[in-house]
Structure prediction request, 170 residues.
Amino acid sequence: MPTLNGSLVSSPSYGALRWLWLSLGVILLDHLTKWLATAYLSYGEPVALLPVFDLTLLHNTGAAFSFLASAGGWQRWFFAIVALGVSIYLVLWLKRTPLSQRWLAVSLALILGGALGNLIDRVLFGYVVDFISLHWQQYYYPAFNIADSAITVGAVMLVWDSFRSKPATS
Prediction:
C-alpha cells in the first residue's frame, strides 16, 4: 500500500528500499571517477598528489587485493555471478529492513552500490578499473576505487551496527 505521499518505496512493505538512491549515487560517482581516470591517466604511471597518495590507473582482473587475478579468465564470470548474488541478497535485505534502522540501511546501500559498480566493470571490460593508490615510503596498499571504498565503509558500518545495542523484541 502506498503511503500518503503516494510513494510505493516509502511503503512499510518496501522497507528501506528508499535508500537505493544512495546505491545509485555510489555507482554514478564510481563510474564518473573511473571514466576520468581512464581518460586522463596513463596506465601504470603514478601521478603524485601527496607524499602518501597517488593516482595510478590499473586494471584488476581478480577480486580484492588482486586475488585470482592470474587465474586464466574464468574468475571474471565467477566474480560477476557472486557479485550479482550478493546484490540480490542485499536488495532483499534492504526490503526487509525497517525504515527506523537507518544505519543498517545506509550500510547495505553502500555495499550494494559498490558491488554493482565493480560488477558493471567486470561484465563490460573483464576487469575492474582501480586508480587510488596509497603508500608509505616503499610500502604500497593495493590500488582501489570509489566502489571499493563504499564497500569498505558499508562493511565497517554493518559490523558497527551489529555491536550497537538493539531494543529487545518479544
